Amino acid sequence: EYSCEYGSLKFYALCGVGGVLSCGLTHTAVVPLDLVKCRMQVDPQKYKSIFNGFSVTIKEDGVRGLAKGWAPTFFGYSMQGLCKFGFYEVFKILYGNMLGEENAYLWRTSLYLAASASAEFFADIALAPMEAAKVRIQTQPGYANTLRQAVPKMFAEEGIWAFYKGVAPLWMR
């Protein structure tokens, strides 16, 4: 038995929830490592290695400092996962119907790649605003400590563009 009909709204919703859980939770779990990696990229003189980066962060900010950026990471990657997993299934069915059953089977690898790329296009648009806020929180000391502080400040300084400057590199990735 299937838990729902393939291609139904419930099916897409369950795929989206799977994306939220798999992307949002896993990326949030590794925030300390991501924080140190980002700081190493921005200030390699201060953060010389992973272990040194953890040590410097704990000395300066305490253990709680390792969680900086958890909220935009959780919300951003949850939205990305929702779009990635949900839209992948939408586009897979849409493109498969456009090709017809036989061609969809014969060209299934290309169909899956096209569906994946299409889903990722929208998933990265959903991720970009939170990723921009996360990077500011993690790499610009004194800029903002929380998502609630970062978002209005970014919007006031640069407008909506502040949240989407990184979308093209996400697409290139």
TrEMBL record:
Catalytic activity: phosphate(in) + H(+)(in) = phosphate(out) + H(+)(out)
Record localization: Mitochondrion inner membrane
Positions of Solcar repeats: 10-94, 107-173
GO MF annotation terms: phosphate transmembrane transporter activity
Keyword match Transcription: no
Record membrane topology: Multi-pass membrane protein
GO terms classed as biological process: mitochondrial phosphate ion transmembrane transport
GO cellular component: mitochondrial inner membrane
Pfam families recorded: Mito_carr
Transmembrane is among the record's keywords: yes
Function, as annotated: Inorganic ion transporter that transports phosphate or copper ions across the mitochondrial inner membrane into the matrix compartment. Mediates proton-coupled symport of phosphate ions necessary for mitochondrial oxidative phosphorylation of ADP to ATP. Transports copper ions probably in the form of anionic copper(I) complexes to maintain mitochondrial matrix copper pool and to supply copper for cytochrome C oxidase complex assembly. May also play a role in regulation of the mitochondrial permeability transition pore (mPTP).
Family: Belongs to the mitochondrial carrier (TC 2.A.29) family.
Protein name as annotated: Solute carrier family 25 member 3
Originating organism: Urocolius indicus
